[in-house]
Amino acid sequence: MDVELSELPFPLRTYGPDGHWSYEDGVLTGWAGPRQDRFVPPTGEALDPAGDAPRLLGAPEGDFQLIARVTVGFNSAFDAGVLYVHVGDRAWAKLCLEYSPDIATVCTVVTRGHSDDANAFTVPGSSVWLRISRTGRAFAFHASRDGERWTFVRLFTLGGEKETDAALVGFLTQSPLGEGCVVTYDHIAYRPSWPADLRDGS
């Protein structure tokens, strides 16, 4: 299923379980079902090590920034709304607003074979602005409480040059331990550029 967002210059396609994605008046809504997640435990292989969660992804060209305000209807620990980048079956990353485990937290996961997991800072309420940027093989994660001043969260690379050229980026919902949650993304924006400075708040 393809979804067109007026703010993005590329179409989005659904992956994984049905996220019941909808888009109206600039607001994208998705649902995570019970115990849906995408995480490869670093402590050892599981029967289904990557798991799966609803994803809505597209293929931007060149440098870019993808921005959205993310709001999560938290019900259980680790419910999250996510900006997601994918370059291979075991090469992908998540920038999350997550209930971690009982307060809204900006956190990141980078998967290179196995996933890591790192918390950045807590957030009052259930909304935060998230931003993924790319130049070449490099990706940057930022978060903001107001959509104006951005806090640098992480800088990393994923995959080889050909894989990164074919990167998919977009949205993911998850509810690893719970019965599901709803996530909305608004103030969605796309910029065909890399930030001028990663650490000056811009």
Detail the topology: elements first, then pairings.
Elements: E1 2-3, E2 12-15, E3 22-24, E4 27-32, E5 37-38, E6 51-52, E7 55-58, E8 64-72, E9 80-88, E10 91-99, E11 104-112, E12 114-115, E13 118-122, E14 127-135, E15 138-144, E16 151-157, H1 161-165, E17 168-174, E18 181-191
Antiparallel strand pairs: 1-2, 2-7, 3-4, 4-18, 5-6, 7-17, 8-14, 8-18, 9-10, 9-17, 10-11, 11-12, 11-13, 14-15, 15-16
Structural description of this entry:
The structure is a single chain. The protein has 202 residues and is an all-beta fold. The chain has one domain (2-43, 52-188): Jelly Rolls (Sandwich), CATH 2.60.120. 2% of the residues lie in helices and 53% in strands. The strands form 3 sheets. Strands 1, 2, 7, 9, 10, 11, 12, 13 and 17 form a 9-stranded antiparallel sheet that branches. The protein has a 7-stranded antiparallel sheet with strand order 3-4-18-8-14-15-16, with no helix packed on it. A two-stranded antiparallel ribbon has the order 5-6. β3 and β4 (27-32) form a beta hairpin. The longest helix has 5 residues, at 161-165. The radius of gyration is 15 Å and the shape is globular. It holds the Pfam family DUF1349. It comes from Streptomyces mangrovisoli. This is Regulation of enolase 1.
CATH architecture: Sandwich
The run of helices and strands is: EEEEEEEEEEEEEEEEHEE
Low-pLDDT stretches: none
CATH level-1 class: Mainly Beta
State the helicity in percent bands: under 10%
Q: What radius of gyration results from the CA coordinates?
A: 15 Å
> Which percent band covers the strand fraction?
over 45%
